[in-house]
Amino acid sequence: MGTLREGNGETVVILNRNEPAFYAVPPEVYEAMLEMIDDMSLAETIRARRDEPAIEVDIDELLQQGNLQ
């Protein structure tokens, strides 16, 4: 824990025989990384579907039909 405290809130790498064993990152950095990964995955899905035909819908009509909750 002392090593992590000395990191002063920055990412810390723990080495085993001079090779990275694991990284300790602050929670806000970890959450930002997860958001970035999610955004990249969503962008890839969007690119893959870019050439698919679009279907126009009326949101009010769907609400009236009870198809959208």
Task: Give the topology, please.
Blueprint: H1 2-6, E1 12-16, E2 19-24, H2 27-49, H3 59-65
Antiparallel strand pairs: 1-2
Name its key features.
69 residues; alpha+beta; 3 helices; 2 strands
Written description of the protein model:
The chain is α+β, with helices and mostly antiparallel strands. Helices cover 51% and strands 16% of the residues. It is built from three helices and two strands, in the order αββαα. It has helices at 2-6, 27-49, 59-65; strands at 12-16, 19-24. It has a two-stranded antiparallel ribbon. It is elongated, with a radius of gyration of 22 Å. It starts with a helix and ends with a helix. The mean pLDDT is 91.
